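Entries read chain and fold; for instance:
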Amino acid sequence: MTGTAFISALAVWAAGWFVNVQLANSRMADQPLVRLAVPAVFGVTLLIMWEILVRLLEVSPVILPPPTMIADRFANELPILWADFEQTIIKGAMTGYIIGAAAAFGVAILADRSEFLTRGILPVGSFMAALPIVGTAPIFVRWLGSDWQSKAAVVAVMVFFPILVNTVAGLRDTSAMQRDLMRTYGAGYWPTFFKLRLPAALPFIFNGLKIATTLALIGAIVAEFFGSPTVGMGFRISTSVGQLALDMVWAEIVVAALAGSAFYGLMAWIEGRVTFWHPSQRERR
């Protein structure tokens, strides 16, 4: 049975490899649908291999449930999954992300105008970024309660530093010649900021925003392990592990992965529309 399982899995892998090679080498390889089909085929191939190996090797669902069992649990628990998504992602992660990004951008502007503040805020921000979430999350839960407000505070702290560093670096990316040219036109700080420095900093800012998307989801979910109402992705994962309901744990993981991919993709799409003039965006077209 073990040999049959591995042979079947290898056959599926070979079939998926063959299909992807044909797609990649076809005349339509640059078409959007084909570019989407290649990772889709790869993902489906992995899922089929997972299903075959788990079924034929008779792996216990307590250890690793097959994808079909996870999909069945996902379909049957949609109301619970949506409530957890709303509590963790919309209320906790998104609120904290917006607060942290706004605070980082405001502090970056202040630091840009003050060399003293720049020298002081970046080491403090680095210190905050190094704080372990397992240490800060219980503190915020104690201060702000077990509802989503404490999770939003954890997320705000986690996303603050990467956005701050990238924004400060972006605002300093303009050359001395460009700044001197603006001065010859009689432009003060704010006209120079909005017409030269902010546009030049946008690729850096979006880089920080994209990095922070994954940090926001991780922070909100992990913070719920230290206290939450009877709803939320972190709460559901911890309780489901205790109940040995690994299919529910994987269903929550699927929701988190889809939400994180969609959030990152949204930021990348906005970046492409806002910084269409930048060389990095022109090269992708």
Observations:
- The CA atoms of residues 273 and 281 lie 9 Å apart.
- DSSP finds twelve helices and no strands in the chain.
- The mean pLDDT is 83.
